[in-house]
Amino acid sequence: MIERIIVHTLVSGGVFAILAIGFSLIFGVARVLNMAHTAFFALAAFGTFYLLSSVVGLELAVAPAIIIVVIIVGLLGMLVYKLVINPVREHHAAVLLITIALAMIIEEVLVWRFGGQNRTLRFLVPGSVDIFGITIVNQNLLTLGVVAAAIVAVWLILSKTKLGVAIRAVANDTEIAGLMGINASRVLMITMGIATVLAAIAGVVMAPLTTIVPGMWASPLMTVMVVVIIGGLGSIKGSIIGAFILGLVSAVSVIDPLALLRGGGAYLNMTFTLAAMVIVLIVRPSGLFGTLFEEEKL
Amino acid sequence: MLRRLLKNFRYGVIPVPGRVIAVVFFLFLYLFPVISGHPLYMRMFLFASIFAIFAVSWDLLSGYTGLVNFGHALFFGVAAYTTGLLYKFLGWPPSVTIPLAVLAAVAAGVLTCFPALKLRGPYLSLLTLAFPLMLLGIVMFFREYTGAEYGIPGLPSIAGSQTGEYYICLIAMTASVLIMWKITDAGSKYIRTGLIFHAIREDEIAARASGINTIRYKMLAFAIGGFFAGLAGALYAHTQGIVSISTLNLTMSFQAVIWVIFGGIVSIYGGVVGVYTLYPLVFLSRRVQSLFSTMQEALPNVAATVPLAKILEFLRELAGRPYLVLAVIVILILLFMPEGIAVWIRNKIERECPRCKLSNAAWRRTCRACGASLR
After folding, report:
1. What's the pTM?
2. Strand, coil or helix: what is B366?
3. What is the pLDDT of residues B286-302, one digit of tens each?
4. Which residues of chain B neighbour A277 with C-beta distances below 8 Å?
5. Which residue of chain B has the CA closest to A98?
6. Does residue B164 sit at the A interface (CB-CB below 8 Å)?
7. Residue B363 phi/psi, 5° resolution?
8. What is the SS3 assignment for B10-52?
9. Taking CB atoms and an 8 Å cutoff, what residues of chain B touch A270?
10. B5 min Cα distance to partner chain A (Å)
11. Does the ipTM exceed 0.90?
């Protein structure tokens, strides 16, 4: 019982964490609220399914398929940023609308080309192991390992490389960074690429653990928004902590809904998580670790 | 009285092409049941009227004051469920439940306003986005009262016939749009709200420094927005005959935003143009699709027509996905015509006199009132 909750918390918390880091990164650096973030997640899950299954007759091995999907989705994210998001970056309402429209386009194209039926993918790695008497399927271990590696990689990029310094400089002050010789719009595009790659990785490792449908972006988007609001928009540490809090909530509600919530509990679950977000927004808009920019204060 | 109206029409409407188009458009809508009365198109224009109220109320709240509300469906859904529940459990007629539903929507607007006063920018948008979804969860939970995904069916119609419904909704639309136009008219000598809403959007601190109680006016904007969105929601429930969860979901909120942005934000008439252009697009997608298939069948079966047939096949499939077309249109409009299509056209066909600020047709060389040169 308790060990199932721990495993579920770690796995769903980890996936939420890399989704939320990507979402938070692009907001923190470019001030872009990317509502299409989880649409890239869905796209990656679809890509994994079709490269691995026999439907389109490719049936690649697992490792090349994953790499191809992540690279293509990442490039697509950069292309989309360059073409449609960058021109309207200054107007937050326009950004929200454009990215929602992008998510709609991705969903509609997926329905159009592949149909809206449910799909399930076999586990990427078979078998299971026993740790301290708990049986964990290898897929969950792979997910955890990939998530941990991705988080460490992002942290290394941001803190140790020249690119990371440039990204943080642009996040701090785009104009001054431009004066210091940083090509701000290219740095923003690369940041968007990193964020999208994170979403794609989440999609790849989540594909075998969930049902793959074109509309699978909406519900994670809500969760990710709640996570980054609780953790603080723009803060990576906050995103990780918020993700594991939400992972615990989802683990408890999936495995043993409280007696009160049985039946329609899943719906009230959404109401309660959103209520938590609203309360955080009202009481402490910057979240646990975020910073509020001067022009957004009242 | 009549002579003054005629004089106004002769000198105030005829010389300005935008106003002529508006008058012709409303004449067309009012005469449509007489000219054609085709039930399908009647239904289309009926819903377009209701959604026009909804879209323009979003423009008044979010376009003018800059409080970008991404959960406008809250007011629509609250009103729809209020009138539905009152009918289901108390059996009251629409003439009683619709006003009560509108009041409930105003209350929802004022309640949303309290947390919204503390936030701005993307934070406000995220906050408002959450409210209709929270209510949706509650509606799904109390399924024995709300019917969850089956909704509350069997609501009575507001009029005996389709023509009656059509005229009630059309008159409600005309009246609402006129009232909202007057409220937001920044040049008015009698009502200051329009000017103050503009001031709040442009620089709230400066507005406060000039002695305007901005909090009161923001609350007013939420209340007015809620009022008209609620009116639209209640009318929608009764013309559909059913209250369903679609009144509360994300698509409903975004549609209002999409319509207004397409037509032109901060203009009132932009929302009307947006709804009457885009709603038929979605409504008639099946018809367009069958039109394409008949065209395909009519093609002679020779090799030269193969590319044409492929194009038709593509268009037919595209017509089956109206929301895809809608999303692409939204992106194109935001990138290349951010002021909206109605405002863009108006700027093409009208020119403001630099001296007396009157609108003139773009093809005039001199102002129609003061004779100043327009070039």
Report:
1. 0.87
2. strand
3. 788 888 888 877 777 66
4. 126, 130
5. B331
6. no
7. -90, 0
8. HHHHCCCHHHHHHHHHHHHHHHHHHHCCCHHHHHHHHHHHHHH
9. 133-134, 136-137
10. 41
11. no
